[in-house]
Design a protein that fits this description.
By secondary structure, the protein is an alpha/beta fold. About 40% of the residues lie in helices and about 15% in strands. Pyridoxal-5'-phosphate binds next to α5.
Length: about 450
Amino acid sequence: MTTILQHYQQLHERSAQLAEQARSHFPSGITHDARYSPVFPLYVERSAGSHKWDADENELIDYVTGHGALLLGHGHPAVVAAVQAQMTRGTHLGAEHALALRWASLVQELFPSMERVRFTASGTEATMLALRLARAFTGRPIVIRFFGHYHGWHDLLARDSAEDEPAGVPAALRESTLVLPADPDVLAATLAARDDIAAVILEPTGASYGMVPFADSQLRAIREMTAAHGVLLICDEVVTGFRVAPGGAQQRADIRPDLTTLAKILAGGLPGGAVGGRATIMHHLDFGDGAWNKQHKIRHNGTFNANPLSAAAGVAILEQIRDGVAGEHALDMANQLIAGLNEVLRVRRLHGWAAYGDGSIFHLIVGSSVAFEPGILPNMLPAAELKQGGNQRILASLRLALINRGIDFMRGRSGFLSLAHTPVDIAATIAAFDAALGDLAVEGL
Ligand code: PLP
């Protein structure tokens, strides 16, 4: 009998060779922590629509979808054409250019809360700048973040829980953030007790794009209480922006944050980010007189801010998605997929397993320590359990078994749907999931 692991090794000899070479180039042989694999990561050579092909020519249905950036799928003709055309005009003009204006006006049309915009090179940079703006505007030092919410890898938000002491981050920086459970009542008590809070930053659909679900009503409650205390609300829509609705989770929940951060879909699959919000806050990026520049202006450079290639891709994608049709299709595909996966779990009577999601993103929890009804995620699961996704041993095997059967879920348990995903993809994925569970059962998992 061939095990899941042996099958993975047989199917991916070229990936294994490349991964071996990579060990002498990259720490752990990888370029992004999410790609870490105790076996070896997959090497992918090309992509089109909702599919990609690995270095051994295995075809996969892709749910990583550019870490959520490719709402139109891989290689959408409008994006490809726009980037190709811009390549010939110039990749870095060392000057302001009109395309950035078009890009900003599309962003502002969809996100009216972004009265002024500053482009950055990544989502990480966008949240860094948002925190600097919040502190400059309020004159207060502390930022509240929620357990498990991710806002990029920088020092300012490296602390993921109250006990976390991330290596290389000085204590003073750790202490400049307060990590709370994502609970409006806890936040209310904290805001009532302290007067040193500059801002609350959050992922508006919950930690890790909804892995730990968060209701629009909770978001609205937080908007109200932050406003009442003069504390800024920073809505990190790096993932949810343009996806949950054309105007992001803030449009769906009908809230107006003080600052918003964007990336991923914003730049159509190329590098790019943005921060925007109330003009009075963004004013801290403006030049003024000598005293203002010295005391209040935030200095912000960045070689690749609003770079022409990202602007071209960004304009192309936003023009395609602004009517909401692409997002609705992706949502429809996600809902079909979630329903199909849960049906498989019910038939197989897998207690403690469920597929769930929000805004064309799905997640799995597998073999949870809480034996809930198959396919029905209970409200009371702890956030840490949802973030982990259940039993790690099962999850690791499931990830390989799914890849063996031509399905690439992000970290083996999440995925982003796109305009390019079809009902045929969904049916094939559900069948492959069922078969992968069969493979796990054979191994006693
Ligand atoms: N904010 C959120 C919600 C994210 O999910 C991410 C990345 O996944 C970031 C910020 C950081 O963005 P980037 O990877 O472009 O630096």
